[in-house]
Amino acid sequence: MDNQFIFKYSCETFPKKWVKKMERSEHGNRSDTNTDYLFQLLCFLKLHTYTRVQVSIDICGVDHPSRKRRFEVVYNLLSTRYNSRIRVQTSADEVTRISPVVSIFPSAGRWEREVWDMFGVSSINHPDLRRISTDYGFEGHPLRKDLPLSGYVEVRYDDPEKRVVSEPIEMTQEFRYFDFASPWEQRSDG
Amino acid sequence: MNIPATEKDLMIVNMGPHHPSMHGVLRLIVTLDGEDVVDCEPILGYLHRGMEKIAENRTIIQYLPYVTRWDYLATMFTEAITVNGPEQLGNIQVPKRASYIRVIMLELSRIASHLLWLGPFMADIGAQTPFFYIFRERELVYDLFEAATGMRMMHNYFRIGGVAADLPYGWIDKCLDFCDYFLTGIVEYQKLITRNPIFLERVEGIGVIGGEEAINWGLSGPMLRASGIKWDLRKVDHYECYDEFDWEIQWQKEGDSLARYLVRISEMTESIKIIQQALEGIPGGPYENLEIRCFDREKDPEWNDFEYRFISKKPSPTFELPRQELYARIEAPKGELGIFLIGDQSGFPWRWKIRPPGFINLQILPQLVKRMKLADIMTILGSIDIIMGEVDR
């Protein structure tokens, strides 16, 4: 479905120190890079005549708690000129700060805010780094794997105080984990 | 004439999260100088429901009811992409009939979404009548959906490998009748709206985006096509069976709100063309790839036996996503809807990232409203066509 043009070209022309690994699969091509060279790599991809990747489709973070550099920030890119997509990934841990790509791709502003809000991977010199999806005054970074699905606080409207308050969560039913081999098998405790 | 000197005191107005248009809960903090807008800051997050984190704890078939709540007006697209992702990961073939049914449902959903964009857009500008007219047509689409899928809006219809149930007897004729009726409906809208001088005053030249700028900001969908760029994922990606039909990409050159309106109206007509061709050419055959229904994990358990085959219509929850990652995309009526899916060798995905078109398209709003009047904000916001369910997820 995709054509592989950008990927092949960039395989040949990238300086060796920029790229840790380039992988090619039928589901999309990716290249892994180091956080120091991220900005240069994306600048190259955007401005070079034969790659012209002008659209940053998506920036997302992934959490792999078992790795040392647990977060991976994935940049999905598209070139409308050559009809080609490429994916660039870097890894970061909780304290690494990545460089913002807002000056290259203006649409990346909100995505980076979201990566900060959901994972805690911040950007140096980002023009506007605030929370975007979570509540005002929420503590924690929701999409990390160590925050449970139900969270730690629940909110309710408190009538005596006439406002919404946050309280530690109280679950009336235990957390159901759906992983059984067939839909008819019972859970172990019935 | 002597104009008295005014004080340069900027006024900050909060167009709060609740407001009477149908975009959803979007908060705009607008800085005004008299009636000219100096700056506008959208604040999102009021409808954030944690869809991505929930996806990490549900199998695909359990997650399907959640996805229709992202973009609740064009529900078939969200389901289509939820199902397309694992299908591409697992290289699952979809039978031809299922592909045709999916295309028909997707195009009907596109019409429904554009209709429900048109109503509130006109209502924000001030014309109340089209708001009622669109619901008349949308109710017909709901009836068709209810006959085929069982639900008016939040159909849980798409499955990995096909659709959940085949079309009922007589549905195709009803759908052809709807197509004929709808073409007269579109003509009515054109007569009422397109050459209306008040509408043109309000909408022409407002919110102009150039072609290069549109690509830089990552816009997609009708916003990009109205600025002169012929980019439609249905033609570019060759997915489902869109290649077998004869249709054209609708586009305009000017890039203002009027151009976006014209693109969407002509997309509706084009969708009717596609539906008519699909209905006339729909092949027979199975509507679902039944091999997905086998239980993979245990080798030949007793549940695969003949006696149990017809007990439940739900496929097995053990569709295991291989340990690969994939970005799947689809041309939703609002733009490019995508998911970035990383599978872990288990029933649950490891990371399910939703790329909503509204989130990206909304980023250009602060730039477009500078130096416009206060009343133009609603025109521009309406022409961007966002829905907060998918912006916030």
Automatic annotation (TrEMBL), chain A:
Keyword DNA damage part of the UniProt annotation: no
Keyword Mitochondrion annotated: yes
Membrane-topology descriptor: Peripheral membrane protein
Compartment(s): Mitochondrion inner membrane
Pfam families linked: Complex1_30kDa (PF00329)
EC numbers for this chain: 7.1.1.2
Principal location class: mitochondrion
Database matches in SUPFAM superfamilies: Nqo5-like
Catalytic activity: a ubiquinone + NADH + 5 H(+)(in) = a ubiquinol + NAD(+) + 4 H(+)(out)
Family: Belongs to the complex I 30 kDa subunit family.
UniProt-recorded name of the protein: NADH dehydrogenase [ubiquinone] iron-sulfur protein 3
Organism lineage: Eukaryota, Viridiplantae, Streptophyta, Embryophyta, Tracheophyta
TrEMBL record, chain B:
GO cellular component: chloroplast thylakoid membrane
InterPro entries according to UniProt: NADH_Q_OxRdtase_suD (IPR001135), NADH_UbQ_OxRdtase_49kDa_CS (IPR014029), NDH1_su_D/H (IPR022885), NiFe-Hase_large (IPR029014)
Location in the cell: Plastid, Chloroplast thylakoid membrane
Residue ranges of every copy of the NADH-quinone oxidoreductase subunit D domain listed in the record: 124-393
Gene3D superfamilies: Cytochrome-c3 Hydrogenase, chain B
Reactions this protein catalyses: a plastoquinone + NADPH + (n+1) H(+)(in) = a plastoquinol + NADP(+) + n H(+)(out); a plastoquinone + NADH + (n+1) H(+)(in) = a plastoquinol + NAD(+) + n H(+)(out)
Domain of life assignment: Eukaryota
PROSITE patterns cross-referenced by the UniProt entry: COMPLEX1_49K
UniProt keyword annotations, A-Z: Chloroplast, Membrane, NAD, NADP, Plastid, Plastoquinone, Quinone, Thylakoid, Translocase, Transport
Protein family (similarity comment): Belongs to the complex I 49 kDa subunit family.
Quaternary structure, from the entry: NDH is composed of at least 16 different subunits, 5 of which are encoded in the nucleus.
HAMAP family: NDH1_NuoD
Name recorded for this polypeptide: NAD(P)H-quinone oxidoreductase subunit H, chloroplastic
Species of provenance: Corchorus capsularis
Lineage start: Eukaryota, Viridiplantae, Streptophyta, Embryophyta, Tracheophyta
